[in-house]
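Take a record.
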Amino acid sequence: MPGLHITDHQMRLYMSYRQTHDTAVAAAKAGFSTATGYRIEDDPRLPSQKKSPRGRRRPDPLADVWDSEIVPILKAAPGLRAIAVLEEIRRRHPEISPGIRRTLERRMRGWRALAGPEQDVIFRQEHQPGRLGLSDFTDTSALGITIAGVALAHRLYHFRLAFSGFEHAHVVLGGESFVALAEGLQNALWTLGGVPEQHRSDSLSAAFRNLDANAKEDLTLRYEAFCGHYGMTPTRNNPGVAHENGSIESSHGHLKKALEDALLLRGSRDFDDLSAYRRFVDEVVGRRNANNRKRIELERSRLTPLPKRRTADYEEKIVTVTSSGGFILRRVFYTAPSRLIGHRLRVHLYDDRLDCFLGSTPMMTLRRGLPVSDRKGGHVVDYRHVIHALRKKPMALPNLVYRDQLFPRQAYRKAFEALRAELGDKRACQITVELLALAHERACEVELAQVIDAELDAGRLPNLALLRERFGPSLASVPVIDVKLVALNAYDELAAVHVVEPASSLEVAI
């Protein structure tokens, strides 16, 4: 057809048809004119063989600086980006246009392919069932999870079997620590029902960070003891080489995308409590495991049996409850019942909680807190622990170091601020402390907070007398019981014992 170039395929068709047809017929079957057929007869080369090399359409903008300046820069710093090279060259030669960036990138890519340094090679591995399990942590802040409206700062501990793809995820509230690793790994193994031959981690780099030599050695021994309890061989990838842990690194993105899809289908990223969010994560991971159930069952048969019991997945610390009504652990102050002042508690430190024991007697479980910053510690306060003492000293409230953490809900804090603005510090402290005491004694913390919010929204201050009457025991609800006492001489009849002679065997027979 006029205006179109023939292709190599058309010419090969023409040459094939030309063996049995004349020039006009062969050209028509190949899809071009008879004149083109005669030109092919004179020059039987393929069209691709006739093309002349494409020449440069404009002068080379790098001709004066490539060999003399750019190549030495690339040899000295092979990993340098094209934009950095361009900025340096334009600093030396301002007349060079900034629009040559793409040209520079192509030239650098070609130079690296011909004369650049050797690159690292990833060696794909064939995984055997039951041989390797991997652990890692992944940041999930992009999911935007909230608990009762409060943003949840967390990450996920992620375990995966290299062969079958079995996964387990555990919500971690603190950082990447041995405690988080031990608890998550132990939960994964007991969920799986078996133990792989080897366990690989990323050198526990976060757990080792900022630790002295003795602490690192202690952590190494604990990790080896943990793996020894389950009969696993501990292995680690080289620091900073993420692809050596690729069987789980690549799975992080898939898991977070699955969680994101499930959140979009759910229609909300807010959960009532932490347990509800953990159930949500378990459901998503469970559905992913169900898709691989055949491979998982195949690998499960090759796993080593679990030991008879779990091992310790916590740190044990000894603390003393001070006269401040609490103790300090890892730069965080925790309140405790005042009757424990002066006693030493044994604390099992988990990622998200503290289990406290007096001797071998469990006393309480506290939420684990974190320091506010490098210079400022944190507070975990339960108002029930200190409210009885605060009622005796209500004026301690305004300057209390953990005042904001004392209020169990925002309604009590807003009530204190409103009372303080209207009635002054002394009266505000008295009423606020009594409100907290009422919430504790009547077990109405949530309901009382709702009433306080309604009063403040209506522009009224909380009325302590009315609230006590509303949440106190109603006289009408207490039944009147009339107890009639029995005369004491009525019990004398119980003292008389009448012995009945047994009937004779003859009488029984008759």
Observations:
- The chain has 21 helices and 15 strands.
- Residues 8-50 form one domain.
